[in-house]
Amino acid sequence: MGMALKADVVEACKCAGAEKPVDLVHLSRLTMGDRDLELEVLKMFLAQIPNYIEMIKSAKTEQEIYVASHTIKGAASNVGAFKLAELARNAEKHSAFDLKVILSEMGLITDYVSMLSSEA
Fold it and tell me: Rounded to a whole number, what is the distance in angstroms from the first to the last CA of the chain?
């Protein structure tokens, strides 16, 4: 699927309320359309999710919350997991995580990447 068409599909999904947990158009731009590299990047991100969960759960001080949320925000932004990045950005600003919502989004990402991997 061409880049312009992918972008149109992503925008249509957003409008219909069916936005994917990872923006594959963004990821495709970063990987110059290399599907194998896209999957490799997503799998590396997926492998780090348990570490991010541990960071969130163990963060007690403002500084620990900031470091955890900043780390998650950067990693999520890089792969195109923009909703997770936004949740982490809010945690960074307010020094508090909405653990249930963040864990739910990480679960959606995990399921989505697993589905993409099985299709490859």
Answer: 15
Taking only the tens place, the pLDDT of each residue in 58-117 is: 999 999 999 999 999 999 999 999 999 999 999 999 999 899 999 999 999 999 988 888
Class of domain 21-119: mainly alpha
In terms of Cβ atoms closer than 10 Å to its own Cβ (0-12, 13-18, 19+), residue 71 is middle
What residues does each domain of the chain span?
A: 21-119
pTM summary value? 0.82
Q: What gap in Å lies between CA 112 and CA 18, rounded to an integer?
A: 13
Q: What is the token pair recorded at 4? A: 């312009």
